[in-house]
Amino acid sequence: MIEVRDIHKSYGPVEVIRGISFDVEPGEVVCIIGPSGSGKSTILRCLNGLETYQKGEIRIDGQRVDPEDKSIKAIRQRVSMVFQRFNLFPHRTAIENVMEGPVYVKGMSRAEAREMAAGYLKKVGLEDKMESYPGNLSGGQQQRVAIARALAMQPEAILFDEPTSALDPELVGDVLSVMRQVAEEGMTMVVVTHEMGFAREVADRVLFLEGGVIVEQGSAEEVLRNPQEPRTQSFLKRVLNPLI
Amino acid sequence: MSEALSRAADYLPVLMEGVWVTIAVTVLSLLVSTVLGLFWAILGWTKVRAFQMISRTFITVIRGIPIIVQLFYIYFVMPDIGINLTAFQAGVIGMGIAYSAYQAENFRAGIEAIDRGQIEAAQSIGMSDNLIMRRVILPQAFRIALPPYGNTMIMMLKDSSLVSTITVAELTRQGQLIASSTFDNMTVFTLVALMYLVMALPLTYLARQLEKRYKNA
Ligand SMILES: Nc1ncnc2c1ncn2[C@@H]1O[C@H](COP(=O)(O)OP(=O)(O)OP(=O)(O)O)[C@@H](O)[C@H]1O
Ligand SMILES: [Mg+2]
């Protein structure tokens, strides 16, 4: 459902994405791993038009992703995003955050949207925090609201950009278990993450990025347990044994 | 002393008429400047180069010209090109335009203070620029812009005295008229000063409350 073909992107003279291609099938969970600055966020953001690219083509269900075109709004309704820093709307309560898209973008009635939003908040374990403002929630709770907000758009795919990197270690588990549940229900997901345990357990496929190219890709088993490329091997050695 | 008081009592009805005009000028020009200021700020925020230029040019020009000169221009020059305004209308429009530049700067600061991630989150659920402005940026920008807005109201109240120069019969002008016919400058201008102060006090209080309420929001 997501086709990425030979994407190139530069900031000024610096080419940060240097020809990336991959596909994501419906229901698939793809994890993107790689060192800092390798272009993981950039390629992810290209997928729903938050970032422009100079060369190549991205298609969602056959439709071209063009950040400059009006069609991008329709595409974004089908491909939601969860951000590292949550980006909840601070002036609205948890449930209002979740209702915002269904009511104002999709034109759903408030009553219907409220009921649906309550359902999603319950699903992420926050039925008792519906009327809280983001400022009064922990990072882990905020991120779960953000996941509910993404789910409430009833998208075909959700993109996650390091959803647990801004969290205290003890809050990471709650967010990952919600993501695991969403994956099990068949959601198509592209997840940039440093959580190798999650990738190993949930990912159908893992892409290892470095220097703006995919150095290695394959099943989680292949890439994480038995990497072929020396660069993948040394990266994994560093993240799995950070103390050595 | 009691003589001064009785004279003050004589002046009071006329000065009170001025007070109402002052309040009318302040409130109306506050409205005009808010709407216009918001317009300039949003124009500057759009991605359209030409709009940004128009907004920036207007603000620069308005901020570079004394308010009195702007008032003279609207009241005395506009009739030459066929636009006749009463002194009151010219005063409100002039003050409104002059202050819209400051309001725009204030709103712009509020809009710019909003985290880029907010806009991206809104985009990622498919919101149009219009919706993002209305549902995400403006509500947050207002909170940021409110404390300075309180101060702007106080400044506008005081600066509304400038419209006396184009014959609007507000408080300062009424004071001048009485003083020039009675030569009782001391009583008249003490009264005028006190009346401004009384009008400013609730606004000062309001501004402080706004600051307290939204400072660490
Ligand atoms: N707005 C920008 N302007 C200029 N350079 C940028 C910009 N955004 C990102 N870059 C550069 O592009 C490269 C890729 O950045 P990107 O954020 O995609 O990396 P990443 O793999 O997500 O890293 P991290 O793990 O630190 O989040 C980096 O070298 C970064 O410095
Ligand atoms: Mg990143």
UniProtKB/TrEMBL annotation, chain B:
Q: What name goes with this protein?
A: Amino acid ABC transporter permease
Could you tell me which InterPro entries the record lists for this protein? AA_ABC_transptr_permease_3TM, ArtM/GltK/GlnP/TcyL/YhdX-like, MetI-like, MetI-like_sf
* Keyword field contains Protein biosynthesis: no
Lineage, please? Bacteria, Pseudomonadati, Pseudomonadota, Alphaproteobacteria, Hyphomicrobiales
- From which residue to which does the signal peptide run? none
Q: Which residues form the ABC transmembrane type-1 domain?
A: 19-207
Q: Which cellular compartments is it found in?
A: Cell inner membrane; Cell membrane
Q: Which Gene3D superfamilies match?
A: MetI-like
The record's PROSITE patterns line, in alphabetical order, gives:
ABC_TM1
Membrane topology according to the record: Multi-pass membrane protein
Q: Which NCBIfam families match?
A: HEQRo_perm_3TM (TIGR01726)
Query: Into which family does the record put it?
Result: Belongs to the binding-protein-dependent transport system permease family. HisMQ subfamily.
One Pfam family linked to the record: BPD_transp_1
Key word Magnesium present in the record?
no
